Amino acid sequence: MGTIYAIANQKGGVGKTTTAVNVAACIAEAGYETLLVDIDPQANATVGLGLAKDLEPSIYDVISVEADAAAAIRPSDIERLSVLPASPDLAGANMELPRLPGSEGRLRDALAAVRDDYAFVILDCPPSLGPLTVNALVAADRVIVPVQTEYLALEGLAGLLDTLALVQRELNPRLTIAGMLLTMHDGRTRLARDVEREVREHFPSLVFDTVIPRNVRIGEAPSYGLPVIHHDPHCSGADAYFELAKEVAARA
Ligand code: ADP
Ligand code: MG
């Protein structure tokens, strides 16, 4: 059965989508059937893999009207990597879901029918701890938490860990933290090095060894609709996401 990873942090701009797209692409490149599920109304992962953000059916239909997940999954241009795309109307699900009893399990139930077709399923979460992220945490086996090595990096992590513990206790006892991932790291600055040390001291054994560097190629790859390993296979960003995918697969 495929392992489901949620990429979550309620802060925006910390590298969730970049990590979701690039880990999924590296795992697919390593030979595993992989599904990326975009559950952010911004649809950045969908667009970053070269798909349109107005495809129907989308994850919105799957979550809101319980459309068949298999019908919404499309191939990407990358071998072994499929996408369940998001669309902007997904924002409406944030309003609708709380009114529907038991709706925390919608994504889990939808993925139950397709997860056996994939070795890895990666969920790209929106930047909030709202109903969509809760759906992802209920569906997931593991969580990867990207943390940008910037001022206030630890801010909000306590809230996220509380939410994870709550979901674990009330809704999904299987859920574990795969790891925290330091992203957009600029090792030349003292601040970034201090933040790395602080996060590792605060959460010993929870932080991935691999650190994702700040890298221009990573930033520009989505505008070509490509993961960085296909945009520039030999840049430092591609190397780092490959190393991370190995760490993730080794811990699976
Ligand atoms: P989130 O999904 O958490 O909001 P993103 O993955 O969209 O964050 O990243 C925010 C922005 O930073 C995007 O423009 C992305 O291309 C850029 N970015 C992410 N990681 C890196 C990196 N390692 N180096 C350079 N730019 C990055
Ligand atoms: Mg995002």
Overall description:
The chain is an alpha/beta fold. The chain has a single domain, classed as 3-Layer(aba) Sandwich (Rossmann fold). It contains twelve helices and seven strands. It has a seven-stranded mixed beta sheet with strand order 3-4-2-5-1-6-7, sandwiched between helices. The radius of gyration is 17 Å and the shape is globular. Adenosine-5'-diphosphate (ADP) binds next to helix 1 and helix 10.
What's the total number of strands?
7
Could you say which overall geometry the principal axes of the C-alpha atoms support?
A: globular
Gyration radius over CA: 17 Å
Q: How much of the polypeptide forms β-strand, as a percent range?
A: 5-15%
CATH superfamily: P-loop containing nucleotide triphosphate hydrolases
Order of helices and strands: EHEHHHEEHHEHEHEHHHH
Main β sheet profile:
7 strands, mixed
Strand line-up across the major sheet: 3-4-2-5-1-6-7
**Overall pLDDT metric:** 96
